[in-house]
């Protein structure tokens, strides 16, 4: 057991899906995994392990923001020897070419987080996805008939962006704003693990389109199927 994950040794699979919303973790376990067992309920941050096409897969909620994700991913990597981590989350689109419910494969993640300066000082680290996972997800999307966009996201510490920093990110081709991927990629680099973020556009910052909380929890199934196919194929 670790501080925030109450799981015995062997309870968590080598490959883990990481939704921010613990209720999305529960939804995935109940609707996509066979024989899913709950291994964690500490602070309401559900974690489950089951099988998908006969392969052992776990799904662990991480909460919102890079500090929260950092806690769970640090513990998964250090104490449970997780080798592959795929974030299944949401983002706000900042390009006109995107639509609500589009699926994004994140090849790299910008960030405004103080976590960067705390680690690297005046240096600038470039958090990037694992290429093999990214390529596998892209090929799986073709097989599943899921139209995906590949590009950068920005992981922000601010959900309510009073300074409209998203406009600067958009000017440089960033596809969407979310709150976790950069920390996931940074920790994967530190611990020598493989990571990928697959995102669904839940709202459009330019056009104003949005989805409901219930839709975000239970209807972004293209992203979930793609992540499960990619995670299970890598085992």
What structural class do the secondary elements suggest? alpha/beta
Number of strands: 9
Could you describe the largest sheet, including whether it forms a barrel?
A: 5 strands, mixed, barrel
Q: Classify the helix fraction into a percent range.
A: 25-40%
Radius of gyration: 16 Å
Number of helices: 8
Which regions are unreliable across 5 or more consecutive residues at pLDDT < 50?
none
* Beta fraction: 25-35%
The H/E string reads EHEEEHEEHHEHEHEHH
In short:
This protein has 235 residues and is of the alpha/beta class. It has helices at 22-32, 66-79, 114-120, 131-144, 166-171, 181-191, 213-218, 221-233; strands at 15-18, 34-40, 47-52, 55-60, 84-93, 103-111, 148-155, 176-178, 194-204.
Describe this structure in words.
The structure is a single chain. The protein has helices at residues 22-32, 66-79, 114-120, 131-144, 166-171, 181-191, 213-218, 221-233, and strands at 15-18, 34-40, 47-52, 55-60, 84-93, 103-111, 148-155, 176-178, 194-204. The chain has a five-stranded mixed barrel. The chain contains eight helices and nine strands. Helix 2 (66-79) runs parallel beside helix 6 (181-191) and helix 4 (131-144) packs across helix 8 (221-233). Helix 5 links the parallel strand 7 and strand 8. The chain is globular. The two termini are 24 Å apart. 35% of the residues lie in helices and 27% in strands. The protein has 235 residues and is an alpha/beta fold.
């Amino acid at each position: 057991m670790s501080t925030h994950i109450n799981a015995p040794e062997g309870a968590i699979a080598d490959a883990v899906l990481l939704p921010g919303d613990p209720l999305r973790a529960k939804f995935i376990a109940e609707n996509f995994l066979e024989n899913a067992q709950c291994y964690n309920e500490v602070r309401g941050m559900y974690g489950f392990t089951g099988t998908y096409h006969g392969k052992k897969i776990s799904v662990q909620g991480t909460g919102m923001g890079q500090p929260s994700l950092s806690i769970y991913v640090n513990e998964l990597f250090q104490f449970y020897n997780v080798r592959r981590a795929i974030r299944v989350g949401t983002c706000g689109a900042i390009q006109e070419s995107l639509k609500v419910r589009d699926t994004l494969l994140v090849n790299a993640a910008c960030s405004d987080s103080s976590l960067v300066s705390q680690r690297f000082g005046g240096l600038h680290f470039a958090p990037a996805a694992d290429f093999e996972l990214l390529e596998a997800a892209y090929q799986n999307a073709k097989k599943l008939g899921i139209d995906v966009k590949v590009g950068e996201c920005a992981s922000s510490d601010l959900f309510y962006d009073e300074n409209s920093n998203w406009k600067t990110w958009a000017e440089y081709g960033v596809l969407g704003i979310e709150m976790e991927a950069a920390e996931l990629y940074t920790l994967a680099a530190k611990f020598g693990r493989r990571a990928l973020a697959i995102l669904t556009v839940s709202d459009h910052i330019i056009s104003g389109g949005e989805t409901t909380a219930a839709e975000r929890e239970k209807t972004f199934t293209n992203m979930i199927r793609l992540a499960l196919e990619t995670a299970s194929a890598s085992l």
